[in-house]
Every structure is written in C-alpha cells, then in structure tokens.
Amino acid sequence: MDVWDQLAVEASQVYLTDGTTAKSPFAGTTIEKLPDKVLLHIFSYLSHKEICRMARVCKRWRIIAYDTRLWKNVSLRPEISGLHVGSLESLLALISVRFGPSLRYIELPIELITHTVLHELANKCPNLTHMLLDFSTAMQLHDFSELQAFPTKLKYLCICLSEVIFMEGFMRKIYNFINGLEILHLIGTYEKVEEEEEEVYEVVNVHKLKSATPNLRVINLYGINFVDDSHIDAFSSNCIQLECLAVNYCSKVVGSTMKTLLQRSRRLKCLLMNGTSLQSEYLLQVEWEKCSLQELDVTATDLSTECLVDMLSRLPGLRFLSAGQINGFNDSVLKAWMESGNPRNLVALDLDSSDNLSEEAIYKFLCKHGHQLWGLGLSGMTHITDSLWQTVLPILNNAKILILGTQERLGVNILVDQLMDSIAKNCPNVERLELRWDPDNLRFSDKSQKAIDTIRVKCLKLKCLCLRWKPCVALEKIQDIKSAHK
C-alpha cells in the first residue's frame, strides 16, 4: 500500500475514544488539497520522463509539470536516460516555452545540434552555464556556416568527439563565445579503437582551442587517441589557473612534458593519467617536491620501482593515490613512502591488482595510516583475504568507501557473516561497500540475516552496497537496505 492509499484509508477511519467517536486527523486529506509548492517539491524528485507522464493526469498537474523550475537540468539523449525529442520544431518550442531563463544545464545529441537550436539557446536561455554536445555517433555534421550566436555564459562544456568527423569548422564558430570556460571535457572514442588502428585523425585542433580558453581550471581529455604530450604542453602554456588535468586512456601520453607542466601550473592539484604510456625516465626529471599535487592516478602504467619510490617520497601533500595494476609497485615502494612521511595527509588509496605487494607490507602501512583513510581499495589480489580485513577493520573507523575481494577463485573460503558484522561494528561512516569475491568462495551461516540487519542498523550512511554472491537467506533482507546495489 503506497502513501496515498494509506491516507485514503486513514481518512475513512473512525476511532473510539473514551466512549466517544473521533475522526482520524487525516480525515479529508487528499493529494488534491496539497499546496502547489508541495506538489512542485515532490515533482522535483522525478525524472523528466516521469514528469511528462504526470502532466497527463489533470490540468493542475500539467501546469506544475511545465513549471520552468523543474527544467533546470535537461538531458535530450534518450539512450542515456534522457528525453526523446522527435523533431527540431518540438525542441525549439520547448526552449521557448518550457526551458527559458531557468535552464542551467543541457545535453544535446548530434541530430539536435544545429545553428537554429544554438541560436535559440543563446537568446532564450541567458542563464545556461553547463552544456554537453554529443558528436560521438556523427558521420556527418550539420552546416554551421550561418552560426552567429552561442551561449556566452558557459562555465562547463563537454564535447563527445566523433571518431572520424573533423570538428574545426564548428569549433571556429564558437571560439569567441567560450573564453569564460572553466571546465572542459573532451571525450574520445577509446572504447571503439581497434588494436591495429590504420590512421589517427586529430578531429579537434587542441592548439587553437587552448588559445580560446585561457580561464580553464579543469581539463579532461578522456580516451582521445591523438592526444600526446604536445597537447599537454599547449594547455599548460596558456591556462595558468589549471587545477586539474586528466588524460586517462590517452595512450600517446608518455610524460615528456610533465616537468614543464608542473613548473608552469603551480596551482595544479589533481593529475590523472590512468592507462597512459608513461615512461619512468621522464617522471624522474620532475621536481615533485615543488608542486602542489594532492591527487594522483598512475593506474595501469609501466612505471618502474625506482620511479615510484622517487615520486612518492618527494610528493609531500598527496591525499589521493591510485596506483593499481603496476608491476613495479612492491613492498620497497610502500616502505620508502612510509619512511618519507609523505602519507601523513593521505585520505584515499586504491591499489587494485597490486600482486607484488605482500600482505605483511599492506598490514604495516594500514596500522600506521589506516585511521586517516576515507577510502581504501584492495581488490584484485588473491593473497588478500578476509583474515587481513578482519585484522585492520578496527583501524579503518573513518572509512567511507571500502572495496574488497577478487573475482579469481581462491583456495580458501570467505566467511561473509563475520566480515559484514565486523564492518558494521568498526566502520559506522561507510557509504559505499563492494565485496568482489567469487560466489564459490563465499560461505554463509544461520547468522547471515543477522549480519545484514546489523550493517543496516549501524551503517546509517550506507548508500551503495555491491554484493556478488549466490542467493541466500540474507537476500530478502538486502532488499530492505535503502541503497543502490548491483
């Protein structure tokens, strides 16, 4: 029974009190009597697809559903949970009637990116500050020769690049409108690239783009197969306010301009280089002790042990480190890092699939720094079992994110009930919990239901619980946990 059915039942109830009859305090309460501002607040929790369905209920709901305050953030990409707009005429009407000055963020697919749409957004949506343009499926662009207007207050721009379509004709038209950009995302086609690529196209002229965006604080170049060190050098030469640079899965980045980048970008705090082709010789030349880096991701790179020791022992302010899937990350690296004292500010650590780290070295590190960690990932390692976790969980009392286990079959069993109970008792602040062990290694007991109850009652901040186990008695209780889980 939902809340409105419950109200209807309550409204019809008559109670006996001291021999007299009394109506329920909810008598006469119906959704029609709720004020418009309350309905508007309720609608704000719905997706736009659901809001459109609500608009068909009655005239009053239709008026509320079309309130521009519900249309501040709009996605028109139906394949990613957005709305489907059947024609350009329909979109132009929406921009004029429904979006207007309230619109702050919009996502447009390739078929809706035309000069008329961009003109309307520039003219009718003066407060538009965030935009995503998805060209990723483009085989041909619209004609932008008549493009004379573009939103001028953009602080955030995300462009999903096409695999083969050159964007320079479009970009040339918008350069004069985007000099206020602070956050730029260029998303490449990394997932579509084949192992033997015949030819790589530079579909966006990064060197011209950097000249048009001098105020960038965040630059994310994700999975772009033509991006190399020269492009990093170009951005660093013009964007003096740069705070975050991400070049994840840009395989041509080797780090040859890393020294220059950190010398120029004194405000740089976040450097993400997951899946790049970094070479140790270049990183050994960097003056790490003089930079302001707080977040570093070198996952799945081929850095040597010498390079890792040199880098970590000279980075004084590191708060987040992701360095998994690196053969060179071994016990000597962890030991040298601890002896340098640099992990004193660390709050998050991800060492996924670091097979050359021993259980003893990890234990010593966590004994010294585990109490300060908000996030810890030790997944993908067969030698890290629940016995280590049981030992260190009392230390991880400030943890908000915990990632445990490996999908590989183990020679030992994982006692899930005891592990869950220990997490509930020692980690009251946990918000995300992942158990990645193979289901065949998990062992349950009659206390499974109690373990789930314990974690539900004691971990009140838990928002995401990922469990990869076989159906068991606890699954019914899992459904009660108010968190998204896979």
From TrEMBL:
Record domain F-box: where: 28-74
InterPro entries: F-box-like_dom_sf, F-box_dom, LRR_dom_sf
Highest taxon in the source lineage: Eukaryota
Biological process (GO), any one: positive regulation of protein ubiquitination
Gene3D superfamilies: 1.20.1280.50, Ribonuclease Inhibitor
Pfam families, A to Z: F-box-like (PF12937)
Spans traversing the lipid bilayer: none
Protein name per Swiss-Prot or TrEMBL: F-box domain-containing protein
Biological source species: Acanthoscelides obtectus (Bean weevil)
Classification lineage: Eukaryota, Metazoa, Ecdysozoa, Arthropoda, Hexapoda
